[in-house]
């Protein structure tokens, strides 16, 4: 057999099975035209601090942030660390999805977070392209088909052999979604389509997380769900985050944060570490940390949790 130039990545679902509590982080590609050195330094620092795998976001149409696939490939190959590549379908028809997914396959990427994708900021009425997937579960189903060797047909062409892909598919989860039935139903559809694990929206409420897991169990959903959260510095920032992402902000957690700019890292890290322990006590298989621009604080937190 011909040796492929890029080794297949370690699957996230296998890491979750092997570890009692994983530590991971999500990074954002730099804006187009920005220096690549900052993201490289960020990746190196997070891995050294204890991140067992990373994920790389995919900007919505109009975001002007390219590089998601090359950065994921870099993390896997150069840093020897498993990586989840975010993949959004809102701008793509199925033929384009298949072509781009095959790029990931050839590069040895094996972890995909399958997302519909948000519209560009300020364009709430923006619509997906005609013929594009309208929901994430449709994208998940298409990737699962590729894993089973089922490809799109092109009229007039026949393919002899069909090599199956081997992706580990993850999905976004929304424990604070305002409609109680939809928050479970949407995830159920994704799991039935082929999702093997979930990562939550930005989440600060262990109670919301625990309730979501209980409702999933009652519905027969048993895949692992990683709580995704970020480090908050002071109370007004926390309130803005909760309002922006429409998620619960527990009063006890809010009060544990400094009222204004903190004078020491411990004022920030102690509430975050306590929040992490509450997620862990609620049954979380790990923690997924949204880094944004707080690399130093995130590294300090990972170092204490390791």
Q: What keyword list fits this structure?
A:
306 residues, alpha/beta, TIM Barrel, eight-stranded parallel barrel, 11 helices, 42% helix
Can you offer a commentary on this structure?
The chain is α/β, with parallel strands linked by helices and 306 residues long. It has one domain (12-305): Alpha-Beta Barrel (TIM Barrel), CATH 3.20.20.220. It has eleven helices and eight strands. It has helices spanning 12-18, 37-49, 68-77, 94-106, 136-147, 180-193, 206-219, 235-245, 251-256, 266-281, 295-305; strands at 22-27, 53-56, 83-88, 111-115, 168-173, 197-202, 225-229, 286-290. An eight-stranded parallel β-barrel has the order 1-2-3-4-5-6-7-8, surrounded by seven helices. Strand 1, helix 2 (37-49) and strand 2 form a beta-alpha-beta unit. Helix 4 (94-106) crosses helix 5 and helix 5 packs parallel to helix 6 (180-193). The longest helix has 16 residues, at 266-281. The radius of gyration is 19 Å and the shape is globular.
Tell me the radius of gyration: 19 Å
Strand count, sense and barrel status of the largest sheet are:
8 strands, parallel, barrel
Which class do the helix and strand fractions yield?
alpha/beta
Q: What sequence of helices (H) and strands (E) makes up the elements?
A: HEHEHEHEHEHEHEHHHEH
Strand content: 5-15%
CATH topology: TIM Barrel
Which CATH architecture would you pick? Alpha-Beta Barrel
- Provide the number of structural domains: 1
Q: What topology, given as strand order, has the largest sheet?
A: 1-2-3-4-5-6-7-8
> What count of helical segments does DSSP give?
11
Per DSSP E runs of 2 or more residues, the count of β-strands stands at 8
Distance between the termini: 40 Å
Helix content: 40-55%
- Give start-end ranges of low-pLDDT stretches: none
CATH class: Alpha Beta
Shape: globular
